[in-house]
Design brief:
By secondary structure, this protein is an alpha+beta fold. A five-stranded antiparallel β-sheet has the order 2-1-11-10-9, with helices on both faces. The protein is built from twelve helices and 18 strands. Helix 1 packs antiparallel against helix 6, helix 6 crosses helix 7 and helix 8 runs parallel beside helix 12. The longest helix is centred in the middle third of the chain and has 70 residues. It has three domains: 180 residues, no CATH class; 90 residues, Helix Hairpins, CATH 1.10.287; 148 residues, 2-Layer Sandwich (Heat Shock Protein 90), CATH 3.30.565. 50% of the residues lie in helices and 20% in strands.
Length: 584
């Protein structure tokens, strides 16, 4: 299951991603394509209608050019166009025609509006051109003028006659005439079904214009609306571009575009997208499965090698040799296997050596502790003798410099005796053999006793101790050991305080614990030494002699006592000096 897990996940992710993308594209087409296409078509129609209106202003009186431009507009935009008066009278509408010259030189315009799309294709197939002779049967719009003829039949020599729609009846008398084609203006093959009747219905329904529409046209603004025929319900789009001459509305360019074709095409497109959607869905699933297998195959192979390496079997090697990232990963995995094998062997050797070194270190530390204990014990007797001789000298034994010798012997004796005591105390604390005798007491009261005992040392350096308490609570600890902690920290503060300054002792409570901080004015502890001050015999001032310092064991003893109390402690440099703190 694990081996096929990545295939399933990769297949699911890939298929989901592409199916989501495919669904978005299909939904976009189904939901928005019709409106997008309508908007695009109508926006283009409006721009071209406005451009036509500007051109029309320059074509006043040139009927031939006007007809050609109308025909060009209709062919290019697949819409109907008419030039009207503001009252709705048609000046120019369907421009498609054939002009023939009769024997007497009279020219007759043959309207092509009676021919629909089917007959239009026949007329297109006849390949009419200028100079061809044709016979036309039809009726004149005006028998008096005899300028426009509406045909029911057109025949070219050598080509089958072309008749208009079946059942075309008219009350006007029919006329047959023949002549030579002098002008030919045919619509494109797709424009024969020109919906001329729809244009007439639109004109009848729109005119006379509503007052608000007429007002907009008078301002020179284009009027545009979607219109549905009340009889058939066919949707169309109508745009009217005003023609302004000398500040007066003279003509209207009336454009009519059917939206029915867009709806019909969109309906067919929806069905097409259903079929293509099913095929695309199946293709995406198939390609996603193939892709996931191709991508995951080398990964599964590398995973097999990695699993053997996880079991410390570094003999496994990846056989893949490729010039891509997978090949690079394979080489890296082989290199890692070799490196781990070598490193593991070296680590085993180092581990054995470390065990040996640690054992030696424990033996040395044990010997050191015994040495300190033995030295401390052995020093007691000679120290007592030195002290006895010093007292003898002080009583009058010896004649020269006896006072000097006496003071030196006594001073050294006291320091050596203090060292011995500290060494013994440190050894006991390190051996964890001391049992704490905890009781309840006040730290501030204990601090007062210590300050009183150290009054001589404070007076020598003219130091003042200020104790600040806040919500102090009693603590549960070993009062003897805590007194030793406070004594050692105070002595350290006195040694490093600036003469004439203050030593501040702050005692406050925080979450049922008492925090004690002792701060003195003086030089800060260097940052690289602040973690070492708790070590035995460590001195931040390397050149300091025994006359200006203690034994070097006071803070080490403080550390061990506080650790026995499971106390949080530390030291920090402040703006004025150094502050030692601990929490009970």
């Amino acid at each position: 299951m694990k081996r096929r897990g990545i295939i399933v996940k990769l297949f699911a992710i890939t298929a989901t991603f592409f199916l989501a993308l495919y669904a978005i594209v299909l939904l976009g087409q189904l939901l928005f394509f019709e409106r997008f296409y309508e908007h695009h078509k109508l926006s283009a129609l409006e721009k071209k209608l406005k451009s036509f209106g500007e051109q029309y202003e320059q074509m006043k009186g040139d009927d031939t050019r006007i007809s050609r431009e109308i025909a060009l507009f209709i062919n290019r935009n697949k819409s109907q166009l008419a030039i009207l008066t503001p009252q709705g009278k048609v000046l120019h509408d369907n421009p498609f025609r054939i002009v023939i010259r009769e024997e007497d030189g009279h020219e007759v315009k043959i309207s092509l509006s009676p021919f629909g799309s089917a007959k239009g294709r026949e007329l297109q197939a006849a390949k009419l051109k200028r100079g061809d002779r044709v016979e036309v049967e039809g009726f004149f719009e005006d028998e008096t003028l005899r300028d426009w003829l509406y045909p029911v039949m057109i025949k070219k020599a050598g080509v089958k006659e072309i008749r208009g729609p079946e059942g075309l009846e008219t009350p006007f008398p029919k006329t047959r005439l023949s002549g030579e084609i002098t002008e030919l203006l045919l619509p494109g093959l797709k424009q024969w079904n020109m919906r001329q009747g729809m244009l007439s219905l639109a004109l009848e329904e729109w005119f006379p214009l509503k007052e608000e529409l007429a007002a907009e046209l008078q301002k020179g603004n284009m009027v545009k609306e979607e219109w549905a025929d009340s009889w058939s319900g066919v949707r169309s789009y109508i745009a009217i571009q005003p023609v302004i001459r000398d500040g007066r509305l003279t003509e209207l360019v009336f454009a009519f575009a059917s939206l029915q074709q867009i709806s019909e095409a969109y309906d067919a497109l929806q069905l097409f997208y259903v079929y293509i959607g099913i095929g695309g869905f199946a293709l995406i699933l198939l390609l996603s499965l193939v892709f996931s297998r191709i991508v995951s195959k080398p990964i599964l192979s590398l995973n097999s090698v990695a699993l053997r390496m996880a079991k410390l079997d570094f003999s496994a090697k990846s056989p893949m040799r490729r010039n891509d990232e997978i090949g690079s990963l394979s080489d890296s995995l082989n290199s890692l296997s070799e490196s781990l094998d070598l490193t593991l062997k070296e680590l085993q050797q180092a581990n054995d050596q470390l065990r040996e070194d640690m054992e030696n270190k424990r033996q040395i530390e044990h010997m050191q502790k015994e040495f300190v204990s033995n030295v401390s014990h052995e020093l007691k007797t000679p120290l007592s003798i030195v002290r006895g001789f010093a007292e003898g000298l002080k009583d009058g034994v010896g004649e020269s410099k006896r006072e000097r010798y006496m003071e030196v012997i006594l001073d050294e004796t006291e320091k050596m005796e203090e060292l011995v005591k500290d060494l013994l105390e440190l050894t006991k604390l390190e051996s964890k053999s001391i049992k704490l005798k905890k009781t309840t007491f006040s730290v501030s009261e204990l601090m007062e006793d210590i300050v009183d005992k150290l009054s001589h040392h404070l007076n020598v350096k003219q130091l003042k101790v200020v104790t600040v308490t806040a919500n102090e609570q009693s603590v549960i600890a070993d009062p003897v050991k805590i007194e030793q902690v406070l004594f050692n920290i105070m002595m350290n503060a006195i040694r490093h305080a600036v003469p004439g300054s203050e030593i501040t002792v702050r005692i406050d409570s925080e979450h049922d614990r008492v925090r004690v901080a002792i701060e003195n004015d003086g030089e800060p502890i260097p940052d690289d030494q602040i973690d070492h001050i708790w070590e035995r015999f460590y001195r931040t001032e390397r050149s300091r002699n025994r006359k200006t310092g203690g034994t070097g064991l006071g803070l080490a003893i403080v550390k061990l006592i506080l650790e026995l109390h499971e106390s949080r402690y530390g030291v920090m440099n402040t703006g004025r000096g150094v502050s030692f703190y601990f929490v009970l």
